[in-house]
Amino acid sequence: MTVQISTAAGRDRFVGSAVSRVDGPAKVTGLAKYAGEFAAPDLAYGVVVSSAIAKGSIRSIDASAAEAVPGVIKVITHENRPATSDNPEDYQDAVAPPGAPFQALATNRIVFSGQPVALVVAEDFETARYAASLVRVDYGVVAPRTDLAAQAPEAYDPPMKRAGIKPPPEPWGDAETAFDAAEIRVNGQYRMADEHHNPMEPHASTVVVEKDGTYTVYDKIQGVSNTHDYIASAFGLKPEQVRVLNPYLGGGFGSGLRPQYQLFLAMLAAKDLGRSVRVTLTRDQMWSFTYRSEALQTVSLGADRSGKLTALRHDAVQGTSSYEDYQEVVVNWSGVLYDCDNVKLTYSLAKLDTPTPGDMRAPGAVTGVYAIETAMDELAYATGQDPIALRLKNYTESDPTEEKPFGSKALKECFRQGAERFGWSRRTPEPRSMREGRELVGWGMATGIWESMMMQSSAHAVLTADGRLEVGNQTGDLGTGTYTILTQIAADTLGLPLDHVTTKLGDTTLAKAPVAGGSWTAASSGTAVMKACRDIAEQAFKLARGMENSPLANADFERVVFSNGRIEVTGDPSKSVALADVLKATGTQKLEATGEAAPDKDFAQQYEAYTHSAIFAEVKIDEELGIVRCTRVISAIAAGKILNLKTARSQILGGIVMGIGSALHEESMLDHRIGRFMNHNLGEYHVPVNADIHDLDVIFVDEEDKANPLGVKGLGEIGIVGVAAAISNAVFHATGKRIRHLPITPDKVIGEG
Amino acid sequence: MNRFDYVRPSTVAEAVQALGSDPAARFIAGGTNLIDLMKYDVERPGKLIDITRLPLDKIEERDGGLRIGALVTNAALAYDARIRERYPLLADAILAGASAQLRNAASTGGNLLQRTRCYYFYDTATPCNKREPGTGCSAIGGVDRIHAILGTSEHCIATHPSDMCVALAALEATVRVSGPQGDRAIPFAEFHRLPGDDPAKDTNLAPGEIIVSVDLPARGFAGHHTYLKLRDRLSYAFALVSVAAALELDGRTIRTARLALGGVAHKPWRNTDAEALLQGRPATRESFKAAADLVLREAKPQSTNGFKIELARRAIVRGLEQAAAGTPQSQSDKRIQ
Questions:
Q1: In 10 A of CB A239, how many CB atoms?
Q2: Which domain holds residue A587?
Q3: Per-residue pLDDT tens for A425-462?
Q4: CB atoms within 10 A of CB A727
Q5: How do strand A439-451 and strand A610-622 relate by DSSP bridges?
Q6: Is A88 on the interface with B (CB under 8 A)?
Q7: Which SUPFAM superfamilies match (chain A) (predicted)?
Q8: CB atoms within 10 A of CB A151
Q9: What is the CA radius of gyration of chain B?
Q10: Per-domain boundaries in chain B
């Protein structure tokens, strides 16, 4: 592919190439510190006692044995918990869904299994953990509701819509009548499993009480601003009394978007005790907040004999908690992907006695696209069409749900390049027609889609007289490569070597920026960094032009380029001056600027912005024993400009692996009698391991997009979307058996599905 | 995790003495299971007896077989040249389990004594007869997909998680133990027990006894064997069903058969009736199906694990086919033969 950067002052040197992570050495040598690793003088340790029941109340709680353990400082429960804000709105963080957010230890009421019921604070972690095991709780138990299928009849249209989440569009045409009249009809119900994010780093917070009474908070969060504002409002503090840092995350996948209860408890204890406190959750406790709630989905497709869609219905019921109406975009994708005259999409929620579900990598799209893309495969078989041909027949160059064209959509090229690399033309469509030794071979494909978003963000840049540049803002790097791409953009804009640029992230003293999520960070923070650096470039150019005997005296800004640490006249390298010399000669200590980025309203009025992908999967199946191996996945991605081929490829590979997990392995299993996830550890919740992953390949197709000056559309989500459908379609091709319930484990392969 | 005393004896006699009749004392070797159980507050030992200094880390020739010291690590055992050559079934079973890091730490004796992986046993928020006798079995009627189909009781449906022990059952190993009453040898089939009305007790070790070695008899079935493990992901998962199959053949006729299953019962499940049925029969799919049917005649499903009965039936047939063909399941290439 070719890469060009269009609007920076410098040339593309690093942007678009495969630069290694700038934070890599810090991570592999252990210099990178995470929220639960920061030290503080006199640090106390808090361990959370978790509820054994899912619903009911605490009748009594006996902490006397725990309090008697030498080294225990305090056991905080709902009975002795210090007051915090009594206004529920003060607990609504920047990405909270409608409702009253959970407040730890607020009352004796239990609303989900694993809910914190006490915090034991001790001089050391081991003492706190031991004492926590001595806290005795007497519960009044109420039968919990956690079975989505049983609650589905009570499902409702959420009265308050979640900010940033489009409700389903109004129906158009008459989908019911058209479906009944269709020559070809397919209709299927699709289920997934509840999934948990399981980042490698468990959630942790270290709250440091400074000498002046202010708080320095290290919190596992995907954007420090969210923690900062939550702490300030919940605890009634002035903004300047709290500084929040989180330079690194050991994976987030959305689990770190909202402040979680360990932060609240660490802050509660620190403020109460007047000393620094750390709270780290156990792996098991990672099942006690946020998860990808499964959905009950029905897709009905009507088509003529050629495969042209005449009716499309997609209905989803998804679980939420008793106290918040969490919502995601599940069904809209079906309307955006395909051209059809009669479409009806519905989405409703059912109350469950679980923690509030939360955004998990490509929230909603993983769920909805699995259903529509499996149904499209069913339609391909029902109409005798090749799955790619069927998708091309129903292709749309504009978004039918908004009646606006796409700013860019290179999906056709994804189909073409992906199919060619995969060898799709050698596929024999008949199920069970491909075989290798004892194993059945299946080839399946699917489309992926994710909305391309941008958020208001700023970034600050400082160029010092030694020719070094520092840029940064508050957003988080989840491990995706944000440090690296921002460094690349800054270096190219000012024509500096990479090692002259330092990027700082995850600190509320830096320029304002939102949480990292939604695949919006590259576009948002990237543009802000570019603008800040371009501002510095202009300042430096003005200074340079005013220098005595300046080689740039007669040049104007549009006619110079920043390269190799110098400002030079385009096409005449003999006329140039080093940036460092400009600052020295003009007695300038430093140049600084803040760049602001925001969505382009004009563009948004004219266009819709989405990333797309085509995923091709191969499975080999020992049918007799029900063992499915996913031996090959190729993902062709159309996501605008690719800033870093190495970190971008890793992003997509990670998405594919997570998609394989969703298709074949991952399932949080609820015991509905007690409303508890039972396989709450990494031995029993099966994420894919090396043996499950074979050949993965990523193609980035050229796509020019103008939604933002960088031309980027974001990559965090798109890699996972559609992977489960491609694999499940491959399983059908291999076996002739349509399994409509993920994950596809051996019991389903040998059983009824 | 509670506070505990720690002692480190240097002889077996000292270890036995340190254990005495203290019900709260526990031996610790690799610690790959005990430490987890302590973190989960399932085990709260008052005293840990570190036995890693005992002289039990050798593999020695004995009566044409091998004597495996209780402290030989799973990794050392699996990669021992004599084991690989003469008892490849055992090497394969070990390599089908856990991870390289765990196998480096885990001991032979500890492998025999590892506790079930029943979710409810590990979760102190739920009743469990194995953890707290008399409180009830939460797994029955609950999330029981991975649970036992053979030899269950109304008090417990847990499975024994070991892969190595399934091979040891098929190989008719002997467990040598030492205790206050002296030394004794326990045939492998009698070492682990079914839950019955006392599921807290996993084995027939008497109070105060320590495992000193596992003895392998001369017959190793190196020619015709397999360890076939079926699981929800292709590595680092406990068996839904596993099969240790070993045959001696006269041409196409079965002279001797050994067949043990993992993941299906409270102990490695060996059915000598099925082995006897195979004896003298041709090594064909029909014979293997008959043996499988016999093994599973008494199988009983729970609410969501009924698939394991059919899966076990198919796994037995495939395992015996692999053994008969002399093409054992590879533990590195996860493709099933």
A1: 12
A2: 24-32+456-598
A3: 999 999 999 999 999 999 999 999 999 999 999 999 99
A4: 29
A5: antiparallel
A6: no
A7: CO dehydrogenase molybdoprotein N-domain-like, Molybdenum cofactor-binding domain
A8: 18
A9: 19
A10: 5-52, 225-325
Task: Tell me if chain B has a CB within 8 Å of the CB of A680.
Answer: yes
Given A596, A703, A717, A752, which residue is catalytic?
A: A717
Q: Does B142 touch chain A (CB under 8 A)?
A: yes
Question: Nearest CA of chain B to the CA of A381: how many Å?
Answer: 29
Taking 70 as the threshold, does the pLDDT of residue A522 lie above it? yes
Residues 152-211 on B with a CB inside 8 Å of A are none
**Closest CA of chain B from A751, distance in Å:** 7
Beta carbons of B120 and A745 less than 8 Å apart: no
Question: Are residues A73 and A44 in contact, defined by beta-carbon separation less than 8 angstroms?
Answer: yes
pLDDT in the model for residue A72? 98
Sheet with A566-569, strands from edge to edge, namely A560-563, A566-569, A572-578
Torsion angle, CA of A279/A282/A283/A287, rounded to 10 degrees? -80
At B2 the pLDDT is 87
pLDDT at position A753: 59
Average pLDDT, chain A: 96
For B225-325, CATH number out of 3.30.1070.10, 3.30.390.50, 3.40.50.970, 3.40.50.300 equals 3.30.390.50
Q: What ipTM was assigned to the predicted interfaces of this complex?
A: 0.97
Which residues sit opposite A633 in a β-bridge? A617, A696
The 3-state DSSP class for residue A91 equals: helix
Euclidean distance between CA atoms A294 and A328, whole angstroms: 12
For this structure, is A328 an active site residue? Answer: no
Predicted confidence (pLDDT) per residue in B271-330, tens digit: 999 999 999 999 999 999 999 999 999 999 999 999 999 999 999 999 999 999 999 999
* Architecture, CATH, for domain B5-52: 2-Layer Sandwich (3.30)
* Beta bridge partner(s), residue B328: none
CB atoms near residue A723 (< 10 Å): 31
Rounded to a whole number of angstroms, the distance from the CA of B15 to the nearest CA of chain A is 27
**φ, ψ for residue A699 (rounded to 5)?**
-120, 130
- Measured between alpha carbons, how far is B93 from B169 in angstroms, rounded to an integer? 11
